Request: fold
Amino acid sequence: MSRILVTGGCGFIGSHICITLLEQNHELIVFDNFSNSSPLAIERVLNIAKVSNVNTKNKIELIKGDIRNLLNIEDVFRKYFEQNKPIDSVLHFAGVKSVKDSVLNPIEYWGINVIGTHNLLTVMDKYKCRTLVFSSSATIYGDSQKIPISENADIKPVNPYGNTKAAVEKILFDIADCKTDLQEIQKSSRSGWRIARLRYFNPVGAHHTGLIGESPNGTPNNLFPMITNVATGKRDCLEIFGNDWPTPDGTCIRDYIHVMDLASGHIAALNFLLNSSPQILTLNLGTGRGTSVMQALRTFEKVSKQKINFEILNRRSGDIAITVADVSMAEKYLNWNAKIDLKDMCASSFNWQKTNPNGYDNT
Ligand code: NAD
Ligand code: UFG
Reply:
């Protein structure tokens, strides 16, 4: 059992991982400012855990706070330290993630993703909590020439969001103070930190109960929320951004990964860190399988038995033809691979949207 701080734990990915962490008997402190989520997510997490007979008594505390405010973070570490229950490790999901908004508000993106993370690291170091799993993103590879993309590919982000993730990766590398004795994806840390930089590909899907799922504030930008909105009648049609890409059907290819597979990947990474010498580990989390926009749409239609109307628009600025993960290193180091197929990704997304048409907002 570890005592784990989960920043951004009410969000899409964080909330799903909280369930898996509770199942593993960890004690959680969830820290979130609810800027893109609802505290109800944690109530639902507790409901799911109870139904599965997971002991949740005193296992989760939800704290409202902002990672941009160092004192907010320090209050949490101090409180647990003074109770003689120091925080052992951190899973850091708090952040902002829209490519489009990052172009419009780069100052906000650097403030939350980079300065916020720096605050967190400052306090962690002060309280000698030096185990961290960080949510990085495949976006840092930019338009990679070689598919599948391995962890050793060049880092060349093409938007402010990607720049912030790449910047944090560098900060983490420096903090780990690495020797150069090991291969690129695993380097020993002289400063005693245990860090996993996990580069997610395209997380989708929802918990099979339909109790938690992706509930962004405002208009979604991503493909799956858009498809589910059309399927449930919230939107008339899906806009497909280009069918003239250099792919078999002309639409872009992505590596969609179910959020519960992502959750098991985090557990594997955390266990690996806790059972290894200090180091920094850098891994892709994806399925290794590519799916085009059109294939995703057709699979969704089959699974949901709903017709998805669509229209073809011009390419979206900043899009890339193909991103697919090379997942061999995650398999090798974590003995982990993604198990949930595209049909289940579609079915669980549809189930969540159908039963929660307004996300957590039932008003
Ligand atoms: P999300 O928006 O659902 O969750 C992020 C959470 O962080 C939210 O609960 C939000 O309220 C909280 N938050 C935002 N700013 C905060 C702040 N200043 N202080 C405290 N809490 C704050 O997003 P998600 O999809 O769950 O993503 C989690 C992490 O994974 C993010 O860092 C994101 O960049 C990264 N990531 C996501 C994707 C994706 O496609 N979903 C892909 C790659 C990487
Ligand atoms: N797409 C459409 N119509 C839509 C939405 C998306 O055709 O309404 C297409 C896009 O053009 C793209 C594909 O669907 O070809 C996937 O688009 P998403 O917006 O769902 O995902 P991206 O691959 O653009 O980016 C996502 C996250 C990023 C993250 C990246 C890699 O939004 O934050 O995956 O992890 F960095």
Summary: The first strand starts at residue 3 and ends at 7. The two ends are 38 Å apart (CA to CA). Residues 106-126 form the longest helix (21 residues).
